[in-house]
Amino acid sequence: MMLTSDPDKQAPAAAPAGNLFSRLKRGLQRTHAVLFTDINDLLSGGGDIDQPLLDRLEEHLLMADVGVKTTNRMLEALAERAKRKDLSATGGIRQAMADIMQEILAPVEQSLHIPGSPRPFVILVIGVNGSGKTTSIGKLAAWFLNKNYTVLLAAGDTFRAAAVEQLQTWGARNHVPVIAQHNGGDSAAVIFDALQSARAQGIDIVIADTAGRLHTHTGLMDELKKIRRVITKFDPQVVPECLLVLDAGTGQNALSQVKLFNEAIGVTGLLLTKLDGTAKGGVIFALAGETGIPIRYIGIGEQQDDLQAFSSNDFIKALLAPVS
Hints:
- By secondary structure, this protein is of the alpha/beta class.
- Helix content is about 45%, strand content about 10%.
- α1 (about 20-25) packs across α13 (about 310-320), α4 (about 50-65) packs antiparallel against α5 and α5 (about 70-85) packs across α6 (about 95-105).
- The N and C termini lie far apart (about 50 Å).
């Protein structure tokens, strides 16, 4: 077992709160452009819903990867509001769309609750290679440190070259210990060691990396199940948060990832990364509408403080805001 740490336990400084919304707005510019280019004038209308408008909206929603099922839900809701003549009361078509989006996203806006016991609380971070999983772990560590929790990282991705070193770099940056073994080691054994170490030290939260799973690879998915069994063996009262990291740029493929990971291990929360680098951010509506799984966090950049707790209201306001 390798344990790395830094004697300086100072938590990284939190980002100024006033910058968060502007960062979110900036991060969603590509998705905003796909959704609203050429239709802003139509959306600002006072209530005339006709088939050409619905067709244009459908085209833009699908291009932003909202998905067929959720797009149909949005358009049907919009048409129903028009039929009831509700649009003037809600301030026009744009406000109606904002209300419909809120209806879809609000149910999955559920922050991660850290119970008082048992300790440590375990966040098992899962996802395919390239989703931003290991980087997100580093950002999560900073997030919890800024909330005055103590954190330990478990380098359970023992298969990807340099994954352990990458996590150790994040550990050093955040001044938190990292439990690791050699490349090719047993991921479940690493996580078990981390749990024992965390309990001995009185640490609040263990954030565990896992190998980047090809979600169609049965053997690797079975290993995730083994990790769950090891956590239960350590302490049956420890119920881990199984946080699935998804790259927003994969669009509708994210839905299939959720389905297969959920079947294998039981996904309890989602973290959607790389929203700043894609025009497919509309997939968040498909994830909310079709899975119902809580969206815990979103990533809107490469910096350590570009991880944000998901707020449906802020997300929709930033998405609909004019680009300045």
